[in-house]
Predict the 3D structure of the following.
Amino acid sequence: MPTPDEITRHHDATEVIWVDAHPTAWTLRIEEPDPAWTQRYDEQAAEIAAALGERLLHLQHVGSTSVPGLPAKPVVDIDLTVADPTDEAAYVPDLEALGYVHWFTEPAWHEHRLLKHLDEPRVHLHVFGPDCPEVVRHRMFRDWLRAHQEDRERYAEAKRSAAARTTATGHDNGAVGFGMLYNQVKEPVVREIYDRMFRAAGLLG
């Protein structure tokens, strides 16, 4: 189990190693909650579980599409835990056979691997190792937003504002790395909610 310090430590940008990332025609937008998001998770979770078998240690639906009533980008975020994210040969080919693209790797951030399924609604599959603090953070954030309407509404407004500001830059929505610009704009509100959540959980003084 990660320590409180590991769980509460915010992630700063680290080196991104682009693997098979490529420009697409996707357009960044915030949509109203859609039952198709949960259905998409259920379908993908079943396929991933069948493909990986015992190599799958844990799977969870995270991010905004996992929070009922929360507007979101039509992108289903899934956290996948495997024994060793660096052993890509043990899981990447099987996920690619399901239609996933190995988008990038972040070695300095818990050996994070991002794979994307580009069919709509999109799926972002985040691969981490056992006892990863980021997996705990994602679960805590999801459950906090489910239980706290005020922060859910605050986050929804931050998402709409970030999407508007990001698309107003004139950058190509489908360009590699465009989504990171959106994340940077809404990050202050995200960290504010995280800090409130951590204090409520007794993880911060």
User: Anything to note?
Assistant: The two ends are 20 Å apart (CA to CA). The first helix runs from residue 4 to 8. DSSP finds six helices and six strands in the chain. The mean pLDDT is 94.
